[in-house]
Give the backbone structure.
Amino acid sequence: GGAIFLIGLPFAESSQWLLFIRWFVGVAIISRLACDALELATSLSTPDAALTVKLIIRGRYARLYWWGVVALGGIFPLLFVQLTPNWAMPLAGVAILIGIYCSEHIWVQAPQRIPLA
């Protein structure tokens, strides 16, 4: 939701709204990155779960995860939201949406790469 608000942010007139959206999106990005880190770093209950994490962090999906989810969908928008003028906020919103797409793609595809038998 915050990404959509960022896309429309240049059209907002209230300075309090602008400040709130910047703060809200910053907290949301940090929370999402922290949840990803916790999910990928905790001990895993099955060998299949461990293999899935390995595929995401160091394997087939590593480049998409680190560049698409963490860099483009997390760090770039976090810095962008804090350091750029309001007219440039749609770029951060689009980057967040691309990062979300990459994340969802990875979390759907990676477990399907584990052999069933």
